[in-house]
Amino acid sequence: MVSTQEYKVIGTRPIRHDGLDKVTGRAVYGADIKLPGMLYGDVLRSPHAHARIKSVDTSGAEAMDGVIAVMTSADMPEAGDKIVDLGEGEINLKYASNHIIASGKVNFKGHPVAAVAATSTNIAREAVRAIKVEYEVLPSAITVDEALADGAPIICEEMVGDDLGEEVKNTNMASHFRHEFGDLEKGFSEATTIVEHRYDLAMVHQGYIEPQNATAVWNEEGRIKVWVSTQGSFSTRTQIAGVLQIDESRINVVPLEIGGGFGGKIPIYLEPLAAILSKKSGGKPVRILMDRTDVFDATGPTPGGWVNVKMGVNDEGIITAAESDIRFDAGGFPGSPVGAAAMCVFSCYDIANTRIDGYDIIVNKPKTAAYRAPGSTHVAFATESVVDEICEKIGMDVVEFRLKNASKEGSRRADGPIFPLIGNVETLEASQASPHWQSELVRDGGNGKLRGRGIANGYWFNIGFKSSVNLSVNTDGTVMLVEGSTDIGGTRVSIAMQAAEVLGIPAEDVRPTVVDTDSVGYTDVTGGSRTCYATGYAAYNAAKSLITKLTTRAASIWDLSEDQIEFSEGKFASKSDPELSMTFKELASQLNDTGGPVNSTGAVDLENAGGSFATHIVDLEIDPETGKTDVVRYTTVQDVGTAIHPSYVEGQMQGGAVQGIGWALNEEYFMSDEGAMENASFLDYRMPTSLDLPEIETILVEVPNPVHPYGVRGVGETPIVPPVAAIANAIYDALGIRLRSAPMNPGRILVALKEKNG
Amino acid sequence: MHPFDYVAATSVDQVNSVLAEHGKRARPLVGGTDLLVQLRGGRFELDVVVDIKGVPEANVLDLNGSLKMGSAVSCATVYENEAISAAFPGLMDAAELIGGIQIQSRASMAGNLCNSTPSGDTIGPMIVHGGQVNIVSSSGSRTVAVEDFCTGPGRNVLEDGEWVLDITFPAPSSSFGAAYERFIPRNEMDIAVAGAASSLTLDGSGNISEAKVSLAAVGPTPVTVGAIGDLLEGKTPTAENFEAAGKIAYDAVSPISDMRGTIEQRRHLSGVLTRRTLAKAAERAKAG
Amino acid sequence: MARVFIPFALRKLTDGVTEVRVSGGTLREVIDNLEEMYPGTKERIVENDAIKSGLAAVVGEQPTREGLRTKVGEDIEVHFIPHIAGGRAVARCGSGLGR
Amino acid sequence: MVDKIHVKTTINGLPQEFLVDPFMSLLETLRDVLNLTGTKEGCNDGNCGACTVVLDGRIVDSCCVLGAEIEGKTVETIEGMAGPDGLHPLQQAFLEEAALQCGICTPGFLVSAKALLEREPEADEHRIRYWLAGNLCRCTGYDKIIKAVQKVQA
Fold first, then answer.
1. ipTM exceeding 0.90?
2. Is D47 on the interface with A (CB under 8 A)?
């Protein structure tokens, strides 16, 4: 099913409202803030991955000229053991507080130990170096296997783990859960082909270009104002309130423009430190900026770990059983996306008998955060590689196999719930028909290079949750839209377009603004692929409410009752008298004579959006002498529900694919034995440059989401799910080697080729 | 960062006197693409940086058969010069792949040399082009071959108060060719996992009269493999001979394993890149 | 009657039963009735009169946004799915199904 | 302590005079001394290009230049790209082609791309990708950025 709905605004490509500021350098990002009397902060971070803090001597810093305030964990209020819901994910406040500044112990390299506010950036930096910390270095555990081994150092000593419902003490295993449906043994006994392998992945980072930053004022009334780059102003407020033990109503979070997030700018890092330093310096504004090394060392990457997948198929090519064991490193505190991974691992398939075990494991690395479809890329690497191998073994076309086993409306996902209307089959069919898949692969790349083609599927559920939008009508017929969703990639325009569609006016006539937490109703994070869906829905509701109010005005002007007036095609009209008709703009011009301003509000708390499926096709060219891989053609196919602004939908698909390509080929946290990330710079982290990529082709499949008025599905996260698996499958196609560790870098390819060729 | 002073020097003498006064606590500044990053990262402290971009002698770029390249001349200035590009192809190969355009606009080959990292892309090409470094100080000047300049990772022959004013290269014969290739996992903005610079001179009958190979990122300093010259001299420039040269390179290097690559990968790449750059150098030598 | 799917970690309390029919017009009533049938289950699902943090209650196809007040229709499926949270320092962490 | 240095320079065609710590980068100078915050910091070590400016006709990473170095030179930043007649064609093309998402890398890309088209108006796709390799973008996958540059060439 593909959208046939006719829209006036939706599906067009207007210029985003915030674009002008962003191409002229006028847009104000977090680090651009400068306030009168502002001080500059810096943070002392642990050089050790695991150590007890025996003493902290700040006297050297305090004695320096230009140093105004110094803080340690002793300045933090005691946080209770309380779970706080952040919209996408939850945090334990005690851990959150210890994460922001170490108390007694450091759990990862880069863990903050003290902070300073001074009259210049350089004085603050020098002052941090003057703080003396005595550490007792402890043994560290860097991988999930090390952390679960006998005799492993216990990282969160007071934590009680949950092993299938049983309490476990003295463990790094925060959680082990299981999903089980059908009869696994029976399912595997019906299989004639069974493939099982383990897939390892390194920790990787979102790699947003703008480092974290925060500026805070804690004033004499005990009110805190924070200017920050965040995916969620309200979740930032909640976290600050929890960690500082202050009422949320006393905190105003001003979200500035945000230079990328991808999930990494949901947790807070610097805000409470800036606030406490402000308080200690008598209410002066304090700004703290991370540098790139801080970002790698001490923000929230996505986990490393491993995924084991076992899958059985019968002679007809039907999957009869599937089993998975997923172990993620959470970082220095509990809370990896292993739960989400378990939801996604078999979600592209309709399988009667499944079992999934998930483990959340603490290690001495930075505490993980969300990263675009968190957990789903990991499990797709495993499942989609196994599927590729099965197809080869049973001699079935890889797309036919996927179509034959595809999950669809009514299929049971392996964690339990039944799928609503989804576009998995439609996406696969569009991939099959795509020019890329239909093209012939020229296997000889010249100069001894070999080419291969791979394909893989991916799924991400899209969350719903809370959003608020306010609309007010100007007498010139334009509408001001106020929202709480921070705009990372063009959501102002996609939300404004949904309001404009209802109101029957051009997108340009709706002016969207993202405001602070004092100025709009509660709105959850820009994350979980929810913003265009949920905040768009709130805008839709607000616009509908506006039409109702304007209908009353039209009724009063024409002396009719409201039910005698209809609104369609952007016009208010009498149902009986064709002479009586006004455009939105014409009616707006009469507001001041009919009762004054007209405003409205839309607020929603939505269930999930049903999810989005993607299929990616990739052609690689590999130099077998060096192991160097180049992507020569790439196509992304995705069910996007309804593409509100197709350019930005394509942009999400392209950007996600390229992050996945980087993850597949080169990106990783390269850890020393002591738990230090050795490549904590853009030079050695090796994200793709423009020269590493071809055009990224996009095919938008539109299976409208039945629970959204315009059929919107979240599109932002799914595009990062298939690339790692697609590239692994293409490497096999080119070289005949199955790589089961990411990144599949030149070194690994050379080793595998050598093993194969002897 | 330890606060340092900045001096924009306009003469050789001025640079000499600042360096003489401050010794280890002062260094010349050209591109800043290594120096400022290292200072910011706390690798070492300085009291003064001396900007030498205003010193006329450091900006010389004189091609007169031989080439004289001032130490402040940016990589971009070098490769944009077509005559130099044609005569010194090994230098061109390296200058065009350092950093991105932004880095090439500032960084100089002398700066790359003085940074003395084993992975420095321009050092091998300068070696195979026979570069001679003109080192000056308040007490005079001396000349050191590029080949003998680096003494360890980040270390070189410069004494306190000394700096590089220029590097000269002899005029290549008409049957000379050179090439540089490095291996990086990306296509730009990366540090060599391994690199190879090769040069060849052919005699009247098309045989190799001289061959030189210098390898990057496979030892504490650039590794010049003399045995390859011995092997190839008098031989014909064939794939088989270059393959044999690659095997010598494989055995000659002693790399380490780190985040950028493993020992075996680097040895293997040394062989591959030696073969490839010799072949490219031979093509260029034949083309004259 | 709703079809309640018993999470793996609770199956010891249900003698291994994986799916059970439970009556109740709201999620609260369903959980209370489940507790009648299998004592001990409620405290593993509900805390402070709300679904425990770290757990998502699915009524029908998607996690409910109305908590214990959610209307539960005839024949509708009810799931309690652990989604890993930030963990807890003392007792219960992660899945929310721990004791 | 070291004394501040007095600098006279030309930025976006206008004469500027200021005092700056001798160890301060041009990036910090532009942002914190001159309030030209359109130039962004992404890595502070010459590897992302977010701080790209034109210095005497060449693009440079302003994090690898000292503020004191621009004495007597000319600097062009993103703030100088649009003129009284409106946006530069590249700025317009970036808007029309949706060549930005979060926008933090956009000033650097625009400054780099403008320098390329002034030198090599006929640059092909490979050359454009090569020239822009010093500018990292994490949102777009570069596709729409390249298309926007090509649109201006057309």
1. yes
2. yes
